[in-house]
## 1
Amino acid sequence: MIQLKSEAEIQNIRKASKIVAGVLEGLKSFVKPGCSTKDLDKKAEQFIEKAKATPAFKGYRGYPACLCTSVNDAVVHGIPNDYRLKEGDIVGLDVGVELDGYYSDAAITVCVGKVSSQAKKLVEVTREALYKAIDKAQPSGRIGDISYAIQSCAEGNGFSVVRDYVGHGIGTNVHEEPGIPNFGQPNTGLKLKVGMALAIETMVNMGDWRVKLLDDGWTAVTADGKPSAHFEHTIAITDNGPEILTKYG
Ligand code: MF3
Ligand code: CO
């Protein structure tokens, strides 16, 4: 059984989400050629500290940083390091915070300077797939509606969807039930209800859908070495439909 959240709980997730949105906004303008992924993690940590929140990922199952930085063929969970971003890279930035016992989680993929037209299209389609998925997060809809929206948008544009990682419920834990796959059929799966808080994540590969895990135990990369993009929002299902809690810009 999925525990539905009260309005007071959603309000707590909303507060944590405003911080997450602010961190991503701040990081976006900080991404430049020459900037290392570790620099980005440090910035994220400073933003989170200033907001008096706690990084959700640091220490989670031994994860060593506040931020996931997934460059080019990295799909998700890239660990910040000394790699310096260069023009033409795409970098996924994924951050989570905890505030007063409630979590929020969101991600964007940023283009570093000018990128190839295919990479730009990949990033745009992955973002578009997220907003199409969120549109389907309606009370009385089903998880499969969200999954199908992601898959049809990605595959309709000639890309593939990741199958080994999924979006998730969120609340007093960063990962809660239900899992939200990037593939599926409409009108299948768990029924969506008012009071659900979900971290919907789109993970789209330019080439084949298969991924592999690097020896660091965290970084997922595409098996074919082609680029991958990632976007994520924490949303709540309300009487009026989906509310994007991590909305930025
Ligand atoms: N948004 C990612 C996820 O839900 C980030 C998790 S990183 C981890 O999987 F370190 F917390 F695992
Ligand atoms: Co997540």
Note: The first helix runs from residue 7 to 30.
## 2
Amino acid sequence: MLHIGCHLSSSKGYAAMGRQAVELGADTFQFFTRNPRGSRAKELDPDDAQALVALMQERHFAHIIAHAPYTLNLCGAEEKNRTFARETMADDLYRMEFTPGQLYNFHPGSHVGQGIEAGINFIADGLNAILSPEQTTTVLLETMAGKGSEVGSRFEELREILDRVHLGSHMGICLDTCHVSDAGYDIIHDLDGVLTEFDRIIGLQRLKAIHLNDSLNPTGAHKDRHAKIGEGCIGTDALARVVNHPALRDLPFVLETPNELPGYAAEISLMRSLSIT
Ligand code: FE
Ligand code: FE
Ligand code: ZN
């Protein structure tokens, strides 16, 4: 069965997100660990977290994804920015253990003119400072569109980061369909070729989740503007091939399309209707 959900607001707490996901026909979801701009996180209620864990078991949810604030930059030029990213992510990972065994996704960072190599080094150093052998959470590097000085729009860059992280078994990749298309990978006409390249450079066993988005811009545009399913340059047929691909179809798929809840429910139902399993 297709595992699919959408990005949800965490403002009403953990169990409320789980119930909302069920109402939308979802069996996974994503949420921001705190305000996406990176301010303080709300106090975590262990009972609320436990209620979500129970609901997820009862409803046979796939893994859920916590998304780090997108303003964090492990490879910022100023040390105080890198330190802030590390401390925030370390706190997020502590909180993640209240919902054991789930996924924590983050944007690798922007090298802001220091160069890709320097960026990759800072990102790996940051991860090495905050990962612990005991953690049950898998940390995911998100594939990026290559806007500005973003690190992680090429599979080679992601592989280099993984190679430099000591606790590599706690790391994986989240592939964003809008971002990889914007980065220049032709998932519209050659999904097989893109996945073969992913497998050769990173290894498909490292792929743990998919962000399912259409893109307002054509392949290689480096813009990162998400579109609703079927209303962008990727299109419904190509996205249906993504959810049905044998190498991908067991992964959790999360919509980050510009929708309110009814729009998400409709896209979840559409993708389920197009799923061949
Ligand atoms: Fe993201
Ligand atoms: Fe994404
Ligand atoms: Zn994006």
Note: DSSP finds nine helices and twelve strands in the chain.
